[in-house]
Write the structure tokens for this entry.
Amino acid sequence: MKQSAIDRINSLRAFYKTGPVFTEWVNFNRQRRQRLNYMRALSQNGNLYSYRLRRAHAEAYLLDNMEPVINDGELIVGLPDLSPLTDEEQKEYDELAKGMKFSPQGAHITAAHMALDYAKLVRVGVNGLLDEVNCRMAALDMNIPENIEKCEFYECCKVELEALIRLQHRYAEKARALAEEADGEKKKELLDIAEMMDRVPAQPPRTFREGLEAIHFYNVTMWDLYYFGRVDRYLIDLYNADVAAGRLTHEDAVELYACFLLMPEAYILPNVALDAMVGGTTEDGKTVENEVTHIAIEAIEYARSANGKVSLAVTDDMSDELIKKAIRLNAIGCAQPALFNDRIIIEGLMRAGMPRSDANNYCNTGCVEITPVGKSGIHVVSPYHNLAAMLLTAMENGSGTKSFDDFYRVFEGVLHSEIARRNIDMNRAQMERARNGQESARVSCLTDDCLKLGKAVDAGGAIYNFVEPNFLGFSNVVDSLAAINVLVYENGEYTVESLLEILKNNFDGNEALRLRIVNKLPHYGTDDEFTNSLAKRLSDSILSGCKGLYTYRGATLIPGAFSYYEHARFGRRTGATPDGRHAGYPLSSGSSPVQGRETKGPTAAMLSTLSWDHRNFLGGIAVNMKFTPSCMQGENEDKMLEFVRTFMRLGGFQLQLNAVDRETLLDAREHPENHSDLLVRVGGFSAYFTKLSPEMQQEIIDRNEHSI
Amino acid sequence: MSTVSDIMGRVFDIQRFSLHDGPGIRTTVFLKGCPLKCAWCHNPESWKKESELFYHAGSCIGCGECATVCQHGAHIISGGKHTIDRAKCVGCLACADACPTGALEVTGGEKSVDEVISAVLRDADFYKNGGGMTVSGGEPFLQSAFLIELLKAAKAAGLHTAVETSGAADIEDMLRAKEYTDIFLFDCKMMPGEKHRKYIGSDGVKLHANLKMLDKSGAKIILRCPIIPSVNDTAEHFKYIASLANSLDNLLEINIQPYHTTGLAKARDIGKDDIFIPQDFDAKTFKEYIKNELMPILSNAVPVNVKSTV
């Protein structure tokens, strides 16, 4: 890539990282200035005849009062105004917030987290959406009572979409005003931006760059986690047309995509992923791997973005070259792309009732939560369940049980009643959303069949509406069940009560027992038959607990077993568990083995995680594996490719290869108990870092510093 | 009459996801016992045939469970500190069983061919692209009957097989093993002679003669050359590697393996105190040796890899 392009990307990244998102906690859901305007509007528009319409007008007011932001060097533009409030504004903000009684709609159920139909936006533009809204509104027979509600919905769409176009045109004006004062290359860049903002997103994009601008601009004004879906499917024609016309090279496209990837750094909280997905298969089973697939993946290395991400849906027919690119990016510390198993996810979606034509077009929306693109009213991670806490409750309830199976039934009872109880909470939240709305109308405009039905996503207008409850502490519970089985039912050394007493005292005075559990008892993650069978049993119990329950909109529950930061948050308030985990320590991360228990190497850890059927857990499964970079590079790249292919072949859901950085190695030296799974390469062999002598550990820390 | 399942092997480790002992993803089976005594050995627990006791002092919490079960007073706990008197140890290894933390750990144990093969086959799915089983040691040919049966069983299961050997073996055994071995990872530690005897415990003549005979029989060979500072990091040695390589017809590649210190901690933990510690080592120098001494002489057009990155 040209040095000027690299410089541009680097300086944009550096600039965004000095912005308020990175330097102070900005409420990304509705940043303060935006929220102020939103509250101003709501406090004044009480004369409008419904709360939904008031919300839409407040959205429009907010868009109309946004100051266009164009920063030096940007090729893709559009960012919220994050300038701090003046003292006077802050006073007004506090006053308004005091009086503002927001409806509790949506409380306790996850908002956003869906991929919009950006393919449609690229096809018809916002004008096309407005045309559709107007036509459908005009066709309504207003003497039919239910059409009144539809009409209101279309009106909300119209109000918001028109405001979005006004904001777009103010961007064009701003770019022209800035161009007046600039000269040379800079002037030209600003005039190009002005021309682009004359066009998109109102009209369909004509170029690859306009395509990226259109989807970014539409997305950024909702400042929440809406996902881009399959960019390599809906941008490839624009790319090809550019190349055919001699307007664009592959390198230019990588630069543009890197700029696009960096935008979320400026408006989304650090480490919240905003993904596009590439790869996968078409309806007729053909692998999607085109220039844009490669461009998006290659851009990762230049952008090195924490928030803007690309994930790869891996297929059997995908080229080794593409997967090796993905491995290499993870090896050099980009921490992306995440690798999803296209076949397994499609089979899972079809099992959940989707036709192949929808199942092939999914996206990870958040971390690993799977939802269909442009058709989703799905709530992911709703709610987070704490399996470890349920196990402790089962120990309270199950003191007299005579056999392991009896104890397991008590635990399963706790699990099932908890799933049912929390589902009622979720349904109440959905009911409140159906009444008053929560997502902006622009979300519904790009979600099928909302426009067709005249129904917002919150009212049930989306085609797919399942809820994805998510289960934390999966591996802690598998290991805990194994420990209870050995200590209580096989050996008779303890009773459930006596063990619980030890846990309540956080293993104080019982460190030898705790270490024995950790070091001598079977663990999930070591390819041990018994713990593998417990994992399968637990996953079956989660499924049977979800079965027969329905959401407010009449859809089913589809579980997930991953975690974002919640395993740490929930861990802090969960007492000691029978797997040897101290009170307050993080729960196991996602569906990976308990931290430090995968002592038989990555193949064994992988086989354990594959011992249960991932296809039923579309809510997300994350398998994290840590390697020092050299395990993934050079001659090992081919071996890592085989490792990835094997994972996919055996039915794994998602694989995250993590390059271990220096900080992790230093922490592993200080706290070896948390890192016994850390595999490093020494001379001619691989070894566990924590088992190495101090001299050797130092050597690896020193060398690793150079190889990252 | 003895059958395959009657033959027991003494195994001290089965390492899965082995990336450096041949092509693809492999499982390496380490057989215990070695006739050589390489001063720098990175697997000092592989020397004796018998099971041994590791004591990892860093993991000990001084709980005293070991002292309670030990009938011979080999474990002494005093002031919360654990000391071990290896002279009193009779090798019953009850202490390791009782130890809750893994500070006391048994290395080595008897396993049947079936047991080893089923452990190796756990990872069969990962071997698809050239991977398989490697047998290492110790010196695997010290248990040649077991080794050959193990290789036979691996072949019957359709696995790619490799054997890592010092060459301290009966050539007849090697030729028999060859029938079931896809690649030999053959050591070239030093030039045969007195110095070889001093550091390794034999003069090396037979080892390298075996190498050449194995090569002539058509076996595929990778030369594995550990470079030990102050012992063989010399221009002369690199020239010798080149000339040895030139004499082989079936050589696939040459691995240059820099010294590392893992053997030191393991030697300490099995109570071996005469530890050889090489002098400081300049990695740059040996890269120069490869460039200036080895490569110019090497006429055998095989790749030369340095397996040094951590």
About this structure: The longest strand of chain A covers residues 308-314. Residues 31-229 of chain A form one domain. Chain A touches chain B through 49 residues (CB under 8 Å). Chain A has a mean pLDDT of 91.
